[in-house]
Amino acid sequence: MSMQNEYNPKDIESRVQAAWEEQDAFKVSEDDGKEKFYCLEMFPYPSGKLHMGHVRNYTIGDVISRYQRMLGKNVLHPMGWDAFGLPAENAAIKNKTAPAPWTDANIENMRGQLKRLGFSYDWSRELATCKPEYYQWEQWFFTKLYERGLVYKKESEVNWDPVDQTVLANEQVIDGRGWRSGALVEKKKIPQWFIKITAYAEELLASLDELDGWPESVKTMQRNWIGKSVGAEVEFEVEGEPALRVFTTRPDTIYGVTYLAVAADHPLAIKAAESNSDIATFRKECAQTSTAEADLETMEKKGIDLGIKAIHPLTGEPVSIWCANFVLMSYGTGAVMAVPAHDERDYEFANKYGINIQPVIYPEEGHIDISENAYTDYGLLKNSGQFDGLGSEEAKKAITAWLVEHGRGEEKINYRLRDWGVSRQRYWGCPIPFIYDAQGNASPATEFPVELPTDVVMDGVGSPIKKMSSFIDTIHPETGEPAIRETDTFDTFFESSWYYARYCCPNLDTAMLDERADYWLPVDQYIGGIEHAVMHLLYARFFHKLMRDVGLIDSDEPFTRLLTQGMVTKETFYREGEGGSKEYFNPADVDLSLDDKGNVISAILKSDGSPVVVGAIEKMSKSKNNGVDPQSMIDKFGADTVRLFTMFAAPPEQSLEWNDDAIAGGSRFLKRVWNVFAKHQDLLAREGLDTRKKFSAVSKEAKSFRLTLHTILQRALFDYERQQFNTVVAATMELTNAIEKTDFKAMGEEGGKVLAEAACVLIKLLSPITPHLSEHLWSLYGSSDSLTSSGWLSVDHDALVRDEITYVVQVNGKLRAKIEVAADAIKEAIEAAALADENVQKFLDGVTVRKIIVVPNKLVNIVAN
RNA sequence: GCCCGGGUGGUGGAAUUGGUAGACACACAAGACUUAAAAUCUUGCGCUGGUAACAGCGUGCCGGUUCAAGUCCGGCCCCGGGCACCA
After folding, report:
1. What is this model's ipTM?
2. Average pLDDT score over chain A
3. Contacts of A507 (CB under 8 A, 6+ apart)
4. Strand B: which bases are under 7 Å from protein Cβ?
5. Which of A27, A47, A336, A649 is least surrounded by CB atoms within 10 angstroms?
6. Nearest nt to the A651 alpha carbon by C1'
């Protein structure tokens, strides 16, 4: 067999992919004779085309999957579609179509792109969350949770567009206005379904400690999100009203309370507004913000005195009650106590409105200065009655004990975590399986799926099923009376919270999961964007525990090891329309002019020749339209080059600003690999490729080459294990450089063997990254075993033994010389050799040597002055 | 505002975790081949000085610990992600 002269990726890739398809190469089933490995990447939203973020995510997953297969494991590697969501509705409105066919077409297209990239998925397990075969089980599961008392309904705030008469997502609120109407958005309360994630707060927090395979940063973010704090709930009596209860982590500061603050929709504020138009106006103003926490936290802190007094539980003094825009009714009790002397936000607020500031905590030494800032540290109590002189820690306990004893409070653990609101007033989602009788009483559906009608017309205002009597009208299963269906749909995080489990038994039509789930779960390696560090990953962990408690699975956590891939970012380009709305343009449609340092001077839209604004460098996303389409690069260079370059450009966890200039270098490298094999085809055909054959080199040249080979291999294996693939690629480049520079024929008999060993290492190291090229070369020269079953690589430690070692010599920490020392030299001999060096001597002239530090196999540092 | 990351040549990045800063590439420059271009190959490439050997400086900024700091500690600045209805 002879090799073609030119590397032709298109030809190789289509042939190798056809062979995989024909052999069902990646289809797996349960096999107790092999160690299982479940590798999963976060499934994509089918937006239409793959972007570079997808390519990066799925290449990382594929490299890990193929690496694990090479190690001999039974690898499950599935793919599917997170198919419900807002963009489908917007596209449907824009294109005058329905979300379902738009989504199906996108899936079709993106599946083709994934196949073209040669990802090793078991496609027989593919699922799409918008199909009733999938979502019927989460409907069923939701009713199970309802039976267990984990589901309830309550009023909750949404962003309301008063012009379009519709609920807006936070993303659709731009500078406080609706994105389509431009109307000022209002907060509106509507009844919505919730799941009690707070009932699992303690377990979700505690089991983070056991997730050794998760990045510390993600665990910290989740801990902070759950936000456990220990403190006290304190009761302030209000004349003629129910007492106000507030939570505080600082009961030691209670003598410093100079006001209380309640939310704008707290009953006290609502009542006060009835007789005071200023308060009514203030409440209205508070309603005109978005529900996003970032907006609430950054807006100007405002308040108004309600003119009502509470009684301080310890001093008996009256304390004024304010209504403030930063207090949330939905968080805690909707009321807080304020200690301006010892809390930054309270301090600012008190200064603004001239409220008394009463210091009660003092440092043990020195004095406090609260003329500029609050004093927020712990200290000793003063002006605190019987508690004067206690330290903060003791005082917390003593004051809480006093409150308990006098029936004015209790010790309390508070979580920042709030229950999960799962209702959405949108069409393209899974219908929430509830019905209502004539009196409005809710009861769970008894038959599944509650199917979402897909033949709809989107008018841009509200969900079409909310007006569709064929969907809404039904019969109550118990009474036989007419009833109506819930028309809200689930939050799309609902679908993505359990898909990883469904891949274990995707076509099961008699249950949500079966025993196969316990064979495969937990997922051994999960890979996805760092932007999902909290919400998606927390909901999935929660769901896993719910499924366990319903008896569907027996593990506690869904993902053993987590790799949070850095974002692929890109410049954004936009034009501002009327009312502040922005129209974003894709980087591919913009011409840039750069200065000689590579900075952008101006950006022109190709289609009309007029300038666009250069925005921030941000995560590639649909909404910012800054995704780079990888298809043109696949067409031009082939899948292996795109995969190789994506891995080479940066380590997986680091964010990557996309720049497609450098990809040609990746293509050039694979051509060089091809040429190495073509050049030596006769030798390789004779020797074959098998690293399991043991041999040791005799000639100096062969020994030296094998030292290089195994040094590189050792680093590459280490980097595979720690999942730093960019340096794996660098190692294969170094190896290729070394092979090119070596004259194997000059080594005589040994040459062919040494070359074959190196070629085999090269093919195998590359195989998870550029599987098509590796498979093809293996088919030409490899053994009769398939590449995947031919075994992984190991370092020959005998090849790493050196006679001489290079030491770096420093004088006072500065590099002055390099010396060659026999590998078995004793410390004194190394020191002597270092001191004898001419350049070292130059720097020791006129000074005294105080100390010599020898780091074995590395360096000598001579300390002198 | 709060929580979590990041900042190293013209560019992407490396530094086996306190021990030679800049591996491996991209870009650029010079040369070879070619009528020419592309492709390919060779060489150079942190900054300053020097023909060179070499020397001084250098990992966002300021300070500290250490024989030795990109790496550890303290204080800042800038950039990115998330903040519960984008996914």
Report:
1. 0.96
2. 92
3. A133
4. 1-6, 10-17, 19-21, 23-27, 39-42, 54-56, 67-69, 79-87
5. A27
6. B13
